[in-house]
């Protein structure tokens, strides 16, 4: 068995005549923080959708711990330990913050999305949910209706939902999008804490270059559906092809 927790082999996805992901070979080391960057439309979200099973590839394969999961149906993916947050928020807006997180804890514990369950189990799920809310610093808002949260707190709620689900692999699609600048260090600390305190693997798509450079051990750069470059933060920031793909903006200004 290899070190790779996730591998893709020549992974390809077409939308009509558009090839959104083009023969991508990706290898993600277990327990690492691995960032995917690239200009808008590069295929990053589509790649995430393929890895998490949300859409199926036109060609190519996805392996999880060496096992081919390309044809595993979506409803079984969560049980394999791949959790993801969506760039478009997937929170139940009319439920409280705590209820949202508790449902994620229940989903992992076979009580799939049932609002009613036994009192003892409910207490365990609630405790797990509260622990996740503490981890992201949202415990004081536990009883607030999710829809009324400020945008940055919704992103934190998504993280808490992921943490309560207890996935081994977290797929984060632009977690700082819409976050106030002063909240970004909180997210960095949180992700570093997850990295140090657990053996979770974090695969992250992120536009904020300072976040990527300070967090990721490995960076894969996508451009027009393909892998343009891969390496350490230092190697990527020195890479001429990467600079050209971004026309200098990403590395010059911090954000493209
Ligand atoms: N469901 C879809 N139907 C048609 N085209 C899509 C769909 N999803 C993504 N695309 C196209 O695929 C390309 C890659 O998109 P995406 O993966 O969202 O890029 P990124 O996340 O890097 O910005 C874009 O040209 C986008 O318009
Ligand atoms: Mg995207």
TrEMBL record:
Gene3D superfamilies: P-loop containing nucleotide triphosphate hydrolases. GO terms for cellular component: plasma membrane. It comes from the Bacteria. GO terms for molecular function: ATP binding; ATP hydrolysis activity. PROSITE patterns: ABC_TRANSPORTER_2 (PS50893). Keywords: ATP-binding, Nucleotide-binding, Transport. InterPro entries: AAA+_ATPase, ABC_AA/LPS_Transport, ABC_transporter-like_ATP-bd, BCA_ABC_TP_C, P-loop_NTPase. Residues 6-249 form the ABC transporter domain. Coiled coil: none annotated. This is ABC transporter ATP-binding protein. It comes from Chloroflexus islandicus. The lineage of its organism: Bacteria, Bacillati, Chloroflexota, Chloroflexia, Chloroflexales.
């Amino acid at each position: 068995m290899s070190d790779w927790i996730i591998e893709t082999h020549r992974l390809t996805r077409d939308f009509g005549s558009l090839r959104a992901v083009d023969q991508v070979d990706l290898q993600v080391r277990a327990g690492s923080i691995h960032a995917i960057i690239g200009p808008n439309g590069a295929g990053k979200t589509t790649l995430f959708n393929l890895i998490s099973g949300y859409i199926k590839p036109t060609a190519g394969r996805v392996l999880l711990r060496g096992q081919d999961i390309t044809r595993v149906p979506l409803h079984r993916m969560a049980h394999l330990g791949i959790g993801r947050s969506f760039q478009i928020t997937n929170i139940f807006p009319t439920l409280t913050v705590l209820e949202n997180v508790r449902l994620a804890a229940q989903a992992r514990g076979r009580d799939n999305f049932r609002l009613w369950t036994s009192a003892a189990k409910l207490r365990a799920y609630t405790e797990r949910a509260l622990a996740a809310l503490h981890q992201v610093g949202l415990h004081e808002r536990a009883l607030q209706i999710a829809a009324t949260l400020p945008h940055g707190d919704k992103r934190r709620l998504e993280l808490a939902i992921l943490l309560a689900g207890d996935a081994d692999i977290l797929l984060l699609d632009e977690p700082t999008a819409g976050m106030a600048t002063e909240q970004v260090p909180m997210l960095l600390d949180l992700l570093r804490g997850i990295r140090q305190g657990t053996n979770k693997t974090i695969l992250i798509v992120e536009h904020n270059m300072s976040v990527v450079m300070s967090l990721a051990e490995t960076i894969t750069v996508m451009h027009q559906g393909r892998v343009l470059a891969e390496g350490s933060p230092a190697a990527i920031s020195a890479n001429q092809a990467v600079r050209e793909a971004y026309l200098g903006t990403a590395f010059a200004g911090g954000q493209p």
